[in-house]
Structure formats: C-alpha cells, structure tokens
Amino acid sequence: MQSYIWNIILMLCLFACTSTEIIESPKTAFVPETAVVTQPEIIWTSRTLTRHFDYLGIIKVRSFTYDGALERLVDGAKELRADALIDVHFNRIGFLNAMEAFAVKFK
Questions:
Q1: What is the band of 83 on the pLDDT scale with cuts at 50, 70, 90?
Q2: Pairing state of beta strands 53-63 and 19-23?
Q3: Of 3, 5, 34, 55, whose CB is crowded by the most CB atoms within 10 A?
C-alpha cells in the first residue's frame, strides 16, 4: 500500500514539472479577443524574415517530449492569437525539454 501511494506522489510531482508560461512582454501589438484563431507558423530564426511584425509576448514551455513541448508552444501562440512563433530556442533540462519563442502578429 505504501509503495502505491509513493508511486502516485511521484507521478504527481513529475506531471507538475511540465508547464506553459506566457509572458505578454514585450507587447507591441493588440489582438482583439474576437479574432479568428489560426494555426501559427513556426519560424526557427528571424534572421531571414522579411515580413514586418509586432510582438505579442514570449512563450516558455517545458515537457517530457520534444513534440509535447512544440505542441505546448503552438497552444500558447493560439491563446495569444499569434500569426507565428519566431526565434524558437530548445534546451534540455534534466529529463525535460524546454522551449521558448516569441509570439508575433504580422503587419
């Protein structure tokens, strides 16, 4: 019985490690709440980006898998109603995959 309880506590601690954090700074654009939510583009670097854009914020995520972190990024961008995610950074923190990117709205 005790091992069962410890397993549950361990699982809760592990799932508490995954997160999505949306920081609406630097925010240089406003998107109305009634705007249509679309699938945002993922642009790994903005060096070659020729389109002008405004920042909606930074999205930071942690997940157990690479795909899970990418899905969390896209969900965060949809929440901000962003057109794209740019300058995506990937880090491995222990057994977690961390990503952060800027959410932008094209002009």
A1: very high
A2: antiparallel
A3: 55
